[in-house]
Design goal:
HTH_TetR, TetR family transcriptional regulator, mainly alpha, Homeodomain-like_sf, Tetracycline Repressor, domain 2, DNA-binding, globular, 10 helices, HTH-type_TetR-like_transc_reg
């Protein structure tokens, strides 16, 4: 009989956070219940609250995790070559992790909550600054890069780009303008 492997508190917290990203990507901040996150993580709902305090704090942790992953992908792309074109060509790595983009979109819509809004504005500003710092782009070039990224993010949410896209003519035309397969 195989014994069950016990996870450390950090490993269990990381599992809960991954489950939170999955749940929040599917249902957003308002539509997600902590008991759903607990079920996905295989823990009790009180344990989720013990780890993160409140649903809001768990959502903030999910936003922080998502933004850190986006920044990591941009840093890795810039290590290949520190220019906007290289960061753009690596956007498919973000599209391969659609939960990141969905949590990002949900975080924007939850920004009416002052605490969430402060976090989201700070994290998006960090992404903006990182792109400028990594590439030396002007504010206008960075705006255009992030605008294109937001269009791709919205298209990902509509499931017309990314894993198993729904083929629609207008979307395919736009995707071709980005040089993405």
């Amino acid at each position: 009989m195989a014994s069950k492997v016990r996870l450390t508190a950090k490993e269990r917290g990381d599992e809960v956070l991954r489950a939170a990203v999955r749940a929040f990507s599917a249902s957003g901040y308002e539509g997600t219940k902590t008991d759903e996150i607990a079920r996905l993580a295989g823990v009790s709902q009180p344990y989720v609250i013990r780890l993160f305090g409140t649903k809001q704090q768990l959502f903030l942790a999910a936003v922080e995790t998502v933004c850190a992953r986006i920044e990591q992908i941009f840093r890795e792309a810039a290590a290949e070559r520190p220019d906007l074109a290289t960061l753009g060509r690596n956007y498919d790595r973000l599209l391969a992790e659609p939960e990141l983009l969905l949590v990002l979109l949900h975080s924007f819509s939850a920004s009416g909550d002052p605490v969430i809004g402060d976090c989201v504005r700070q994290r998006f500003g960090s992404i903006y600054t990182l792109v400028r710092d990594l590439t030396g782009a002007t504010p206008e070039q960075t705006r255009d890069f992030l605008s294109a990224g937001m269009l791709l993010t919205c298209m990902s949410a509509m499931q017309v780009i990314g894993p198993n896209p729904i083929p629609i003519q207008w979307a395919q035309e736009l995707i071709q303008t980005f040089g993405i397969d």
